[in-house]
Amino acid sequence: MQTFIFGHKNPDTDSVCASIALSYLMNEQGKNTIPKVLGHLNNETKFVLDYFKVKEPDYLNDTKVRIKDIRYNKKAFTYEDDAILKAFNYMQKQNITAIPLVDNKKLLTGFVTLKEIAKYLISGNKDIVDTTYENILDCVMGRAVLKFNEDISGNVMVASYQSKTFQDEVVVSNDDILIVGDRYKIIEYAIESKVKLIVLSGNHIMPKRLIKKAEKYKVNIIESKYNSLETANKVILSNKIKSINVNAKPFSVNVKDYRTDFISLSNKVGHTNYPVVNSKNECLGLLKVTSGEDYVKQKVIMVDHNGLEQSAIGIEEAEVIQIIDHHNLSSIGTNVPINFRSMPVGCTCTIIYNMFLENKVAIPKNMAGLMLSAILSDTLVFKSPTTTEEDIFVASKLAKIAKVNIDDYGYQMFKAGASLKGLSVGEVINQDFKSYSVGNYQLGISQVMTMDIEEIEKNMDDYIAKLDELTMGNYVCSVLFITDVYKNGSYVIYNQKAKSIIEDAFNLKQVEEGIYIDNLVSRKKQMLPALLEVIEKKV
After folding, report:
1. Integer Cα distance of 75 and 186 in angstroms
2. Is residue 267 domain-resident?
3. What's the total number of domains in the chain?
4. Full residue range of the structural domain in which residue 467 is found
5. What is the pTM assigned to this prediction?
6. What is the pLDDT of residues 199-228, one digit of tens each?
7. How far out from the chain centre does Cα 473 lie?
8. DSSP code of 256?
9. Assigned domain for 128 exists
10. Do residues 524 and 386 make contact, with C-beta atoms less than 8 angstroms apart?
């Protein structure tokens, strides 16, 4: 099973590049991993991937358990034209009490239970057969003598009379199927009457002269090893299973459906078995209610975060096997011990660089470029207070492999990511918005990097309104920090009711929307701790 590697929601350059680099490292070690992203990439990250010619990871909607992850019976279905006996025997073999029916394209056409088969055997019409030559042949374990018709339908008759009585009192025609033993006068009479099919019972052999006559009249013939009574019962069971299909549109589940939705459905309708289909309505098997607890969780590795609220939808249903992060510990919990690697450095990719060295895996130019970009982004080209000597050292090593000048490349990268043109107010706020729990409340912090504050000042009222809108739920404070990397400070926009929180958090006597605070660049070490301290006291 493949393991997904991804960063937090609203992915930034570190979360994306860390996912790709770690996936490369693990795959070089023989693992099977795929990097994913939980949202749209920002302009800076797109620039980085394009610069080093690396494919953008696919989007991961969620990690919830789906029907495909449950161990359902992938062999449990039968063709609607199969014999009742064949379907029954298959159900016994698969130990199931119901079976989906499919057409020759494997599209779901119906559903039959053992109860319905039993009802048919007890009270069904046993005088009519509508099936195929092959079905009858299989059910009576017979030998094909003559075959003129693929489809066989008609009234079933057992020749239990004396030959003369049968010929005098019974009228047979092309609408009849005759089951008979070694009564050759009756057989000859039936052939001359052009019956649809003669099933010779008792393991007898049809005389050549009668075979020749049957060829002339185009009468189908099968030889059965069973006696007449057993043969008659088997012929009835050769009817197509769809003949007792009373549920042409059964409740089914799509292989992409969530397990939780299946549980809700089963509780509502109360059925025991459900056909599993794909988007084309092709039947893939049968899911028992009792199998709902037997499933395989999606294996995941989290990078650049360790909190549920910042991770994939349904992360609690996944199997987290490893976390690599450089943030404070959050709300994630696991049922079993896992590999958890956390270091007080400025960037996740600084940690991953060391993992390359530890595992003696060579770093190619493009991976070096991605990891360097992540470090420059998270440390704001070493101007952020989160920067460590380790980050600077690793960046210098990666720059040599990537063959770029740190200052020149850093400027290009931030310039590419700084443009906000074409983005709506909501898109600007949400591109790097993170939520933090403070008791029963939430704190929202968004940070964007730009060298052109005028783009935001033109729509200041709209930004304030959007932040006010965010606090209509249980958010006590929502703040947007517009960071100018080269000016080394941030402009602050906040929801209107958070004015006193901003003043207390950053020791400001008088604050106004869009105020500039020098040397305020790090969400992790400056913005978040200051806001948390004040909010914890106020709420």
Report:
1. 45
2. no
3. 3
4. 425-538
5. 0.74
6. 999 999 999 999 999 999 999 999 999 999
7. 31
8. T
9. no
10. yes
